[in-house]
C-alpha cells in the first residue's frame, strides 16, 4: 500500500460515520469530490480535512474535502446483505475446500446441493474455486470427501469490517491515516 502526501488526481474523499469510523473498509468508503461538496452544501456532512486543491465556481472557491464525517450516525449493526462480494469477503477470498486465492477462479458453492433442498443462504453457501466446485458436483462435502476449512455462517457487519481491514487499498492519502487501522509507510 502506498500513502501519498499530494492529492490524488480524482480527489477522492474518505467518508466517516458520525463516530469518525469509516463506513466501510473494503471497499474503503470514499466519494468523488463532487459528491462530498454536494453533501457539504446539503449540510449532511462536516469537513474534517481538506486538500490544498481549490474547487472553484463562479461565486464560491473552497478547498476540496479529503475527509468528511456524516452528521447523522448510520447504524452498522444491521445484517449484511447476502452478495457475492460479501460472501467472498467473509471467506477471505479463498476457496473453502482447497484454500486457493486465485480471484479469477472463485465462485460459490451450495454446501447442501439444491437438489437435496439446500437453499441460497449464508449458512449454506461457501466460496469455492471452479475446479473444487466441479469436483464436488451435486454432492455434500462429506459425500465428496471435501471438508470445509471453516463452517459457513452469517457474518455480522463488524466481522465483515474486521475482515475488510485485512485487505488495504493500493493507495491512501496521508490525511486519511488518523481514521484508518493499517500499518503504512509514507511515500513522497
Automatic annotation (TrEMBL):
Occurrences of domain HNH nuclease (ranges): 82-134
What GO MF annotations does this protein's record show?
A: endonuclease activity
The protein's matches in Pfam families, at most eight in alphabetical order, are given as: HNH_5
UniProt KW keywords: Endonuclease, Hydrolase, Nuclease
| Hydrolase among keywords | yes
Q: Which InterPro entries has this protein been placed in?
A: HNH_5, HNH_nuc, NA-targeting_endonuclease
Q: Domain of life, per the record?
A: Bacteria
Which protein, by its recorded name, is this?
Answer: HNH endonuclease
Species name for this entry?
Alkalicaulis satelles
Taxonomic lineage from the root? Bacteria, Pseudomonadati, Pseudomonadota, Alphaproteobacteria, Maricaulales
Amino acid at each position: 500500500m502506498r500513502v501519498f502526501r499530494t492529492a490524488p488526481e480524482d480527489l477522492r474523499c474518505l467518508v466517516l460515520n458520525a463516530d469518525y469510523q469509516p463506513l466501510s473498509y473494503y471497499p474503503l468508503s470514499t466519494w468523488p469530490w463532487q459528491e462530498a461538496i454536494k453533501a457539504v452544501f446539503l449540510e449532511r456532512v462536516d469537513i474534517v480535512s481538506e486538500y490544498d486543491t481549490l474547487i472553484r465556481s463562479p461565486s464560491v472557491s473552497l478547498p476540496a474535502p479529503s475527509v468528511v464525517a456524516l452528521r447523522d450516525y448510520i447504524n452498522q449493526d444491521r445484517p449484511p446483505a447476502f452478495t457475492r462480494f460479501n460472501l467472498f469477503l467473509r471467506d477471505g477470498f479463498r476457496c473453502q475446500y482447497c484454500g486457493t486465492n486465485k480471484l479469477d477462479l472463485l465462485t460459490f458453492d451450495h454446501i447442501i446441493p439444491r437438489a437435496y433442498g439446500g437453499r441460497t443462504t449464508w449458512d449454506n453457501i461457501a466460496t469455492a474455486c471452479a475446479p473444487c466446485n466441479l469436483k464436488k458436483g451435486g454432492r455434500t462435502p462429506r459425500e465428496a470427501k471435501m471438508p470445509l476449512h471453516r463452517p459457513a455462517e452469517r457474518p455480522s457487519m463488524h466481522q465483515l469490517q474486521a475482515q475488510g481491514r485485512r485487505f488495504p487499498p493500493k493507495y491512501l492519502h496521508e490525511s486519511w491515516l488518523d481514521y484508518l487501522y493499517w500499518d503504512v509507510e509514507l511515500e513522497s
